[in-house]
Design goal:
By secondary structure, this protein is mainly alpha-helical. Helices cover 78% and strands 0% of the residues. The chain has one domain: MFS general substrate transporter like domains (Growth Hormone, Chain: A), CATH 1.20.1250.20. It is built from 16 helices and no strands.
Length: 412
């Protein structure tokens, strides 16, 4: 049920932004946060040459961001349900701006890691708040969930490709892209300052910051059912964002950062297209599509890597991208409607905790394994894990489908 927008701002001044403009602003901010998280990906090879760290260093830079994000989700994920969306978003955007300043001035791996931790904290504070605000503001039921699935994938694609293009064609490759993002974030701070509050808040803010996962009783069965698919989707994303450029260079013998960025954009771009294409389908149907295409796409990608086929790698990545978008969308469509307004941020935080654990821990392990067994064998093992998880989710959905008549509200 959509919450009535409260027309309150600091000093009781009426907000300048209307409901529709605020909805658009929130979607853009989601894309910005996720795009900023993908910005270092095309730079990893440059950083390795500049500062002399290994593939494990690259996955550490990626993984420490996700772990910082998780820690913040566990403590502040429900905070906006209590104190309102605007204060949390303003604080998160200020932290994001600070992290971008650190990125632009980084002179080694240590500063890069510090910037990533702060960026992870900022994104963790913002992500469930942004998703909840979209649902608060939606005029058409379900539109907020669709945008909440599309905006991150669009942001990842634009962030990766934009970072690659800027760093290859503009001066000062390790700072220019972050300064561009900094300008965007400052504009978004001004926008949120002028936006209306969308949640009335409730008591218990300090209590809500105890590390805990919040899952309403009505959503527990669906969380268990969707978890393998959610893990597979985000583990695949973690691999592409941390080791995708290395895989592209190794399999295709191409040494431009753009090739890795295009692989990320292919995965996430087809993911966004899948969300838009399947937006009117039921949650279970979308997840069936997602799990099936994940298995098929990862299999074709692995085959392409074995035979060094550019066409197979990108075709497999595109098909896996459909699974990436549909798998995450299916989770949102089936889980989020089971929560009341005051439970949304907490439940979405739980979804993202699962997602970012899957996004970071397997990628960190993969970075370690590259140094032990090589990139090719690590890729094979990682791909097999993703396919196995997707298969578990697919079997679970098919088995649950047999009982559809007895539990229709859970399935669709």
């Amino acid at each position: 049920m959509t919450t009535t927008v409260l027309q309150k701002t600091v000093g009781a001044t009426r907000p300048r932004l209307g409901r529709g403009a605020t909805f658009t602003l929130i979607a853009v901010i989601i894309a910005t946060f996720l795009g900023a998280s993908a910005t270092p990906t095309p730079l990893y090879e440059h950083y390795q040459q500049l500062w002399g760290f290994s593939s494990l260093g690259s996955t550490l830079v990626f993984g420490i961001y996700a772990l910082a994000l998780l820690a913040t989700l566990l403590t502040a994920g429900s905070l906006s349900d209590h104190i309102g969306r605007r204060p949390v978003l303003l604080g998160a955007l200020v932290l994001e701006a600070f992290s971008l300043v650190l990125f632009a001035s980084a002179d080694g791996l240590t500063m890069l890691l510090i910037a990533r931790v702060i960026q992870g904290i900022a994104t963790g504070a913002a992500i469930s708040t942004l998703g909840s605000a979209l649902i608060d503001l939606e005029r058409t039921p379900g539109r907020g969930s669709v945008i909440n699935s599309v905006a991150p994938t669009v942001g990842l694609a634009v962030g990766a490709v934009g970072s690659s293009l800027i760093t290859e064609h503009l001066p000062r490759p390790t700072s220019t892209v972050y300064l561009v993002l900094l300008v965007i974030v400052i504009l978004e701070i001004l926008g949120v300052w002028a936006a209306p509050e969308t949640s009335g808040g409730r008591p218990g803010a300090w209590k809500s910051m105890r590390p805990a996962l919040s899952v309403p009783r009505e959503a527990r069965t669906m969380i268990a059912l969707t978890a393998p698919c959610l893990i597979a989707v985000w583990a695949l994303g973690g691999f592409y964002l941390s080791l995708g450029p290395a895989l592209a260079r190794n399999a295709l013998d191409v040494h431009s950062s753009l090739i890795g960025a295009v692989m990320v954009a292919t995965l996430t771009g087809f993911g966004a297209a899948a969300v838009l294409t399947f937006r009117n389908l039921g949650g279970r149907t979308v997840m069936l599509i997602g799990t099936t295409t994940l298995i098929l796409g990862v299999g074709i990608t692995l085959l392409g890597a074995e035979i060094s086929s550019t066409v197979a790698i990108f075709a497999g990545t595109a098909i896996a991208g459909i699974g990436f978008g549909a798998g995450f969308q299916g989770t949102i469509l089936t889980v989020m409607p089971l929560a009341d307004n005051h439970q949304r941020a907490g439940l979405l935080s739980t979804v993202y905790v699962i997602a970012y654990l899957a996004n970071s821990l397997p990628a960190l392990l993969a970075g370690y394994l590259v140094g032990k067994i090589g990139l090719v064998d690590t890729t094979r093992s990682y791909g097999a894990l993703v396919m196995a998880l997707a298969a578990v989710a697919l079997i679970g959905l098919l088995v649950t489908g047999e009982r559809k008549k007895s539990v229709p509200s859970v399935i669709e």
